[in-house]
Amino acid sequence: MANEGIEIEVYSYEDPTVKVGSIFGRQKPQSLDELNGMGGGQFNIAKNDAHLTKKPELLDSRNVCKIKVNGSVVQAFLIRDILDVPITKAGETYREVKGPGLKEWFDDADVYPKQPLKSFSPTTRFFNFASEASTWYSKYNWIDPTELGRVRDKSLIWGSAPDKWPGGAEGAKWIWVESYQSEASIVPCYFRYTVNLATSGNYAIYSAVDDHYELYVDGEFIAKSSDKSSSHVEATRVVVKLGAGSHVIAYKAKNFPTDAETPDSPAALAMAMFKVAKGGKETLIGQSGGSGWKCLAYPAEAPGWTPGEVLLALINEADARGVRSMGWLNPTFTGDLDSYNNAWSSRREWSWDVGTSYIDIITQLEDSYDI
């Protein structure tokens, strides 16, 4: 008998763990399992099939069809298209039922900002050293920085406070990692400050770094000092608009060697953050020194995220937002290992526009890592 040993089971679009029934009178079942593609499947069935007449919900849109061969599932697909095709000789009509593979579920979810949506929400989502702490964060040795002394302490090696340092931030301290290696002259030091804001609004960030820095807020690059500059001499001010809630203010800092003969010293940082009122008055919110600060001292490789960590973060977020299909997934990978139980080849920085479909992200990751 043709197709002997082939079964098609149908599961509900409302809950793909709930079986609706089986398709018995089907013809020409087919499945497509594409390498790095969507995949899919299809079958034909008579339009007047008696079983379908009694149970029409079998062909509800987005029901999951599992094609089984000798009891084992070889492919699953979503019902998306049903075409009525006439059979001229028999004077009957059959239905061609087909659709994409379950990978289509990733098209149900889009990238959101990490913070709740606001009129001024970022238009890009970042996954880097300045993003929210999740599983990637624990893979690195983030430590408390060493406090050198207050910014205006003239006894420190700089001799005076940076020009344009704001009043009201006299308690800010220079911070660095005291124990350092020769790598300090080659690779950056990373600083993170986590702050919880009570209200939305404009916030001014004052920065002074010995010598060079890049400033990031919630993963987004905001500003940097001039190349080969000594930015500890004069503080710089930038204003960002932030919503209420938790935010990460982060720096990539580097101290340039004095000359070819002189070993380099660690990068040092001073920062102050103010809430800016409509009239321009600034109220201190946070500063360098004290709690909230962590530092990653001169890692040999820049910190980043694996594809597994990115995907799991996105899936969990969409599930929490109520995207049901994300809750149905059972990932076969982890943040450390791919689906073949191999370690991800590297860690990287990633970014996507808000509104990007997860299916587009999956495609990019497959092209980048052959997952």
Kindly describe this structure.
With 371 residues, the protein is mainly beta. It is 10% helix and 37% strand. The chain contains 4 helices and 21 strands. The chain has helices at 50-54, 307-321, 324-328, 358-369; strands at 6-11, 19-23, 27-32, 40-46, 64-69, 72-78, 81-87, 92-100, 124-127, 146-150, 173-176, 189-197, 201-210, 212-217, 220-224, 236-242, 245-254, 268-276, 282-287, 293-296, 350-353. It has a 5-stranded antiparallel sheet with strand order 15-14-17-12-20, with no helix packed on it. The radius of gyration is 29 Å and the shape is elongated. It starts with 5 loop residues before the first strand and ends with a helix.
Q: What is the β-strand count?
A: 21
Structural class determined from secondary elements:
mainly beta
Strand content: 35-45%
For the record, give the distance between the C-alpha atoms at the N and C termini, rounded to a whole number.
38 Å
Query: Biggest sheet: strands side by side, in what order?
Result: 15-14-17-12-20
Average pLDDT score: 89
